[in-house]
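User: Run a structure prediction on this.
Assistant: Running it now.
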Amino acid sequence: MTKKILLVDDDEFIRSMLVKYLTDAGYVIDQENNGADAFETLKSDSSYNLLITDIVMPNMTGCELMKALKKEQIRIPILAITGGMENAVEEYQCAADLFADKTLLKPIDRSVFLHEVEELIGPA
């Protein structure tokens, strides 16, 4: 069975890099560039196996997205990623408090990233 992932990041370069990693590994990827659109997607489509979300984004942050999912009782494994070194501790705490299953700091190492995805949902 093919695994379907929703990837949310406002940085187009990061999104395209992670999409390449994931599609090369055999996963099916949909993508959004903000948390608000991702929330609407997840409310209307329960077929996703994993949410990968950036923390710092305009319109709706990753933390706000996780809060909204929790409030709506939408359960999905979550891999949170962040690049804000100066805010990393607070962002990681936010992600941990909101039950992200895993957190990674940018820049993303391909092998570590794919290992974490596989740990959460298994191989593609």
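Helices lie at 12-24, 35-44, 62-71, 88-97, 110-121.
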